[in-house]
Design a protein that fits this description.
The structure holds 2 protein chains of 2 kinds. Chain A is mainly alpha-helical. Chain A folds into 2 domains: 39 residues; 230 residues, MetI-like (MetI-like fold, Orthogonal Bundle). Chain A has a two-stranded antiparallel ribbon with strand order 1-2. In chain A, a hairpin with a 3-residue loop joins β1 and β2. Chain A is globular, with a radius of gyration of 24 Å. Chain A starts with 5 loop residues before the first helix and ends in a 9-residue tail after the last helix. By secondary structure, chain B is an alpha/beta fold. Chain B folds into 2 domains: 183 residues, Periplasmic binding protein-like II (D-Maltodextrin-Binding Protein, domain 2, 3-Layer(aba) Sandwich); 150 residues, 3-Layer(aba) Sandwich (D-Maltodextrin-Binding Protein, domain 2). Helices cover 40% and strands 16% of the residues of chain B. In chain B, α2 links the parallel β1 and β2. The longest helix of chain B has 20 residues. In chain B, 46% of the residues are buried. Classes of the chains: A mainly alpha, B alpha/beta. Chains A and B meet through α3 and α11 of A and α3, β6 and α14 of B.
Chain lengths: 294, 344
């Protein structure tokens, strides 16, 4: 047995670290630095962004019309997140209770549609929601409604699209939470006389809270940026923040403003992640061994 | 017969040249704006490989070119007013007319226009119009005659508008009695006020394939391009086109070569190829817009040649107005446009 070459191991480690850092610098830090810089520059239609530095773009973000888009976008994303949670939570609960082999099969079945490009799947939703689409023709032919309902190109359609595209991101962290949930806890509380509702509220819900929060965050934040869903299903009206940002870059060519808007979105995202960390700490402390009140 | 000999002669002379030529050309065109086999025919004839990309608005194409310092694409197809703008900003380069012998097939009525005197920078590919689209299986077309009807409350949440700032403002400006190419901020503001009242009626904006919502039955009334109606009619006759009383929006889309193009010779070869009467004819038949190629028009079926949807009568053309560059005022338009689209 030869001793492992220490120098080689070290250089391998250095290589990995360098690669990771290099990747992060090139793909994360540099682009964001550029966006941050652009957001402080002055708009110019011919050269996209020029000196001098100014805060003008950020003051534009605070204009009342963008406030409305902002809140509207928050509202649409919040509804989509809630629907994802309502579907995803029971789904993850049931899935986590299955024997491992069945769980694997069900998970794969859930993921299979997501191997298809999400743009194509969004187009497919158009065929389902249209006036002569699957749902309307079914409802009309069975006589439930007389006139087809307008579903496509409405906010409803956008929410359906968002839920469809983002559901797995809700389910996966929830499954992880449910898998960690020991059945013993439930049984113990049952023995101590807790009914089903009490068990859910006092045991299941708090222990899966990290999963709920993680799932909500990774659904909620991307939802605000999914401009193609709003373009295709919402009729290209500026419903989401992502649409406003896209149009600032491609149509209006006010890059500083588009950048300022993106940065605002990122700051919000960071704030929410911070809230998540706080919530997580709070949840884990309650009743945990490190709880000072114990 | 003479033509036939010439064709044969060119083929014999050109074929070896073509085989040697190789090379490639990167074409950036509007979506669904060329027959599917045209590119293959071009490659077969010249040996030049085509890389083909599409866009759905002048703004997207313009932004991409600016971002790439006018390089990366060899042929682009800006609309009238963008030709003027891009030539002024030196984003497109002067054409070498000696490489475009097929220019002789084009109708002089569509050359040497204000937006590009002497056609130094651009060669018209198609011209067309934006008017009213009607699905006659759901609506009575005989009552439709005016842009004004889009504002009627009965169409609440039902209309399609183009996803194009200039075309939508054109309608409102004309209704207010102003020039659709105005640069006067007050007139643009008035148009915005009028369009604001139209927004509750709008179901969607689409400049990608506006015929599709009509064909899918999601929309029965709104704006549409004449060529899109021609394409739709191949599957559904009920979709019809109306030239509004106030005049339709007319535009020309032209080939141009970006200033930073790396395959300039191949780009000229492509543009020249597209002006071959046989090719121009197949383009009209497929895309359904009017070609400026008068040799090709003579070769078209009478039915197509006399179709007023493609080739409107002179009186209709005179009533409408061609788009031209509005210069810096486009920023005013764009700001109002964004406000309209967020529902303000």
């Amino acid at each position: 047995m030869s001793r492992p070459d220490f120098g080689q191991v070290l250089s391998f480690r250095q290589l990995v670290i360098t690669l990771t850092l290099g990747w992060l610098t090139l793909m994360v830090i540099a682009p964001h630095a550029l966006v941050i810089m652009t957001s402080f520059m002055t708009p110019d239609t011919e050269h996209l962004a020029v000196w001098p530095l100014s805060l003008e773009s950020y003051s534009k973000v605070l204009q009342p019309i963008y406030f409305d888009v902002f809140f509207h976008s928050l509202w649409l994303s919040a509804v989509a997140t809630l629907v994802c949670l309502l579907i995803g939570y029971p789904f993850a609960y049931i899935l986590a209770k299955q024997p491992p082999w069945l769980r694997a099969v069900l998970l794969v079945l859930m993921m299979v549609p997501f191997w298809t490009n999400s743009l194509i799947r969004t187009y497919a939703i158009k065929l389902i929601l249209g006036k002569k689409g699957l749902i309307n023709s079914l409802l009309v032919s069975t006589g439930i409604i007389e006139q087809p309902i307008t579903m496509l190109y409405t906010e409803f359609a956008v929410i359906v699209g968002l839920v469809y595209v983002l559901l797995p991101f809700m389910v996966l962290p929830l499954i992880a939470s449910f898998e960690k949930l020991s059945a013993d806890l439930s049984e113990a509380s049952k023995d101590l006389g807790a009914n089903a509702a009490q068990r859910f509220i006092h045991i299941v819900l708090p222990l899966t809270a990290p999963g709920i929060i993680a799932g909500c965050l990774i659904v909620f934040l991307p939802a605000m940026g999914m401009f193609y869903v709003a373009d295709l299903l919402g009729g290209a009206k500026n419903l989401l923040l992502g649409n406003v940002i896209k149009n600032q870059f491609l149509v209006v060519r006010d890059w500083p403003f588009g950048s300022a808007f993106s940065i605002t979105l990122i700051v919000m995202m960071a704030a929410m992640l911070w809230l998540y960390v706080l919530a997580n700490r709070f949840v884990q402390r309650r009743g945990g061994l490190d709880d000072e009140n114990l | 017969m003479k033509n036939w000999i010439r064709l044969l002669a060119t083929t014999v002379i050109m074929a070896p040249l073509a085989a040697m030529a190789g090379g490639k050309v990167v074409v950036y065109n509007w979506s669904e704006y060329i027959p599917e086999d045209t590119i293959e025919r071009f490659t077969a004839e010249t040996g030049i490989e085509v890389v083909y990309a599409t866009y759905e608005s002048n703004e997207t194409m313009y932004s991409k070119l600016q971002l790439q310092k006018n390089a990366g694409y060899d042929v682009v197809v800006p609309s009238t007013y963008y030709v003027a703008k891009m030539a002024k900003e030196k984003m497109i380069q002067p054409l070498q007319k000696e490489l475009l012998p097929n220019l002789k097939h084009l109708d002089s009525a569509l050359l040497n226009k204000e937006y590009d005197p002497q056609n130094n920078y651009s060669i018209p590919y198609f011209w067309g119009s934006t008017g009213l689209g009607v699905n006659t299986s759901e609506m009575d077309i005989s009552t439709i005659h005016s842009w004004k009807q889009l504002w009627e409350p009965q169409y609440k949440g039902q209309l399609l508008l183009m996803d194009d700032v200039r075309e939508v403002f054109h309608v409102a400006l004309v209704l207010n009695g102003h020039s659709p190419n105005t640069t006067n901020p007050d007139e643009i503001k008035q148009a915005y006020e009028l369009l604001k009242k139209l927004m509750p009626n709008v179901l969607l904006f689409n400049s990608d394939a506006p015929r599709e919502p009509y064909m899918a039955g999601d929309v029965n009334f709104g704006m549409i391009w004449n060529g899109e109606v021609m394409m739709a009619q191949e599957e559904d006759d009920a979709i019809q086109y109306v030239y509004p009383d106030e005049g339709a929006v007319f535009w020309v889309d032209s080939f141009a070569i970006p200033a930073g193009a790396s395959n300039v010779k191949e780009a000229h070869a492509f543009i020249n190829f597209m002006m071959q009467p046989e090719i121009a004819k197949s383009c009209v038949e497929y895309v359904g817009y009017a070609t400026p190629n008068k040799t090709a028009i003579a070769m078209l079926d009478k039915e197509l040649r006399d179709n007023p949807v493609i080739f409107p009568p002179q009186s209709v053309i005179e009533k409408g107005e061609f788009q031209s560059d509005v210069g810096e005022a486009i920023e005013i338009y764009n700001n109002y446009w964004q406000q309209l689209k967020v529902g303000q």
